[in-house]
Amino acid sequence: MSQADIAALVDELRSRGVDVIRVSYPDLIGVDRGRDVLLEELESALGHGIAFCRAVYHTTPMGDVVPVAGGIEAGLPDIKAVPDLDTLTDLPWEPGALWCLADTQVAGDEAAGESPREVARRVSGKLGELGLRAVVGPELEFYLLEECEGSPGWKRYADAPGNVYVVGRKGDPRGILLTMLRHLRDASLHVTAANHEFCGGQFEINLDHSEMVDAADRAFRMKSAVQEIARYEGMLATFMAKPFNDEGGSGFHLHVSLVDEAGDNVFGDPAGKDGLSDTGRHAIAGVLAHAPALAAILNPTINSYKRFGPDTLAPWLIDWGLDNRSAMVRIPPERGPGSRMEVRLGDATANAHLAIAAVCAAAYLGVRDRLEPPAALEGYGYDPESAPMLPQSLPEALDALEADKEFGEVVGSYFVESFLTYKRNEVERFTRFVTDWEFREYAYHL
Length: 446
Ligand code: GLU
Ligand code: MG
Fold this sequence. Notes:
Elements: H1 3-15, E1 20-26, E2 32-38, H2 42-48, E3 50-53, E4 78-90, E5 97-106, E6 110-111, H3 116-129, E7 133-147, E8 154-156, H4 176-186, E9 191-196, E10 202-207, E11 210-211, H5 212-232, E12 235-238, E13 252-259, H6 278-289, H7 291-298, E14 320-322, E15 329-331, E16 341-343, H8 352-368, H9 394-403, H10 405-411, H11 413-431, H12 436-442
Parallel strand pairs: 1-5, 14-15
Antiparallel strand pairs: 1-2, 3-4, 4-5, 5-6, 7-8, 7-10, 7-11, 7-12, 7-13, 9-10, 13-16, 15-16
Helix pairs in contact: 3-5, 3-8, 5-8, 6-8, 7-8, 7-9, 8-10, 9-11
Bound molecules: glutamic acid (GLU) and magnesium ion.
């Protein structure tokens, strides 16, 4: 963008009453980091970028820095975040401000290898080499919580049984879901619908499908926006995989299809078995073949593995089925331009860019290597004799990610190394931490 174009944009925005641009990007765990930049500083932000310490990418939810290569042991160097004005949207709940994403660069203006947006772009480029584009429609579930006395200080909002798909004030007495849906639409996130989910206080918002990097950008922003709008209401929106013992987890289902350079769906084929093309079958097989490595990215916390299990609507086994919700990969009944797979593996904690990149990388490998899926699951799944089991813990999934070198090459080896270091630090910290469960179980009789 030329200086004259930037000056014209700034004038136009000022005349619309805009005085701030919120610039944000996802860190390694999908938390939104960024700065609010005054409009008069936009030109300089576009020119020099906005400086951040690289270790922002490697910070735990508790605020500690994990020693990932290129971060703390390199002396905590800078990265710069360059606003991407193609992503500029309204910020309806913050009048006077607009919102855009940023790309991050290390010294020499090279893209930061652990940048989730960069990982997604890299995978999109790989698919491009095969003449393909991935189209992704994300669905995200989350709980709304209200502050309360006692530990942990938050309880489920409007907690009542059986409100699954119940609309209106019965399951949402304050009408917060509808407020969110409207705000997200006005922030141009292309949301399609919202509903009360299966469990008390649990909701879901669906996003329209689009090219994988754009879909990832919108899913990341949707999570950020939902959390922000909840805060305006004094509530906590959590995307944690399995926040409660007595209720189900929150999924991040991804509807994924492949289109050719002309934009035509190549996942389905009316003449193919089950109405699927060879490419579609290969893509499904890729997701199944690389599922153990995928789990590390789609189920990235210690808590994630408590969402899996029989009779949960979350997966447990590495399987696929035709319109079968008990399978890890469900093939919805639509064919023609709507032919696609629904990958039900991910939980809502997953970093949106990384999750989408990982699934598309596995689909890419399936197509590249012409993999064939095993027989589809029939009936209600969860029979451990019928299919291999998913990793049952984060350490197991991290080992699978490390071992899957082909997958690592597609998503980027620096990223995989950073992610493994970061997550193994999390496992190590948890292993040493005495939990409430241990005290309750052991302290009285033993
Ligand atoms: N909450 C379930 C999960 O964790 C999914 C429920 C549904 O089918 O939408 O994946
Ligand atoms: Mg759902």
